[in-house]
């Protein structure tokens, strides 16, 4: 089997129309299609739903289900709010800053930009409480290759110690990464 790409990623929403409006008007995603049924096709359960699909760029599809007969949606209370999020790439820092300004002017509270050395990000929540990240790549030549090189060693060390390995601490210390000219 060879996976081609993600077909779509689906999340729950509180209100399908409000969700489409947010992603279309504030993030520029094209509303692609809606599917609604009174019965779940896979399980045959009687459970009306609205399933909406938005174009997140380059063949990536973000989808949402509004399921009004289910208990009110919540989140995993044992997982910090910053962990589960959807991250979207934007073209440049200028676009990232323009998005931040647009979101804030529409009443959305935005955190950042946060510097991750290889990209800078802003963070905010959609109307459903899903954390969203917009990221602009800022990696210098060689950074991504170095991170890929040390990834297996980092994972192995983490699996044994559950402490952050130091192989790539240059990401947040501002130090030079191995192989750089600095």
Order of helices and strands: EHEEEEHEEEHH
**Poorly predicted runs:** none
- Please give the radius of gyration in angstroms: 20 Å
Write down the overall geometry.
Answer: globular
Oligomer: single chain
Proportion in β-strands = 25-35%
Report, as a whole number of angstroms, the end-to-end distance: 43 Å
Q: How much helicity do the residues have?
A: 25-40%
Number of helices: 4
Output the structural class.
alpha/beta
Whole-number mean pLDDT: 94
Extended strand count: 8
Order the strands across the largest sheet as they lie in space: 1-4-3-2
Largest sheet: 4 strands, mixed
Explain this structure to me?
The chain is α/β, with parallel strands linked by helices. 25% of the residues lie in helices and 31% in strands. The protein contains 4 helices and 8 strands, in the order βαββββαβββαα. It has helices spanning 16-25, 93-105, 143-161, 170-173; strands spanning 9-13, 30-39, 46-55, 61-66, 85-90, 111-115, 119-125, 131-137. Strands 1-4-3-2 form a 4-stranded mixed β-sheet. β6 and β7 (119-125) form a beta hairpin. Keywords: Aromatic hydrocarbons catabolism, Dioxygenase, Iron, Metal-binding, Oxidoreductase. It comes from Alteromonas ponticola. Its cofactor is Fe(2+). Belongs to the extradiol ring-cleavage dioxygenase family. InterPro entries: Glyas_Bleomycin-R_OHBP_Dase, Glyas_Fos-R_dOase_dom, GlyoxalaseI/FosfomycinResist, VOC_core, Xdiol_ring_cleave_dOase_1/2.
